[in-house]
Amino acid sequence: MLLAGTWATVTAAEIGRLGYLPIQGDMIVLTDRPGPARYRVTQVDLDDLGAVTLQLTKEAAP
């Protein structure tokens, strides 16, 4: 089950450290929070400076 989404912008430098461009369907886990939140990438927008804006949809707990 997916819940309403949020947007996150990732800089070109951060994408370079990541080593790949996130794509629709990728899973992101925020590990710095208690009970790591899991988000699915539902949309990817690349700007002219190399920054990436991701639409993230939180996955409900099983």
Automatic annotation (TrEMBL):
Domain of life assignment: Bacteria
This protein's name: Uncharacterized protein
Species this protein is from: Prosthecodimorpha hirschii
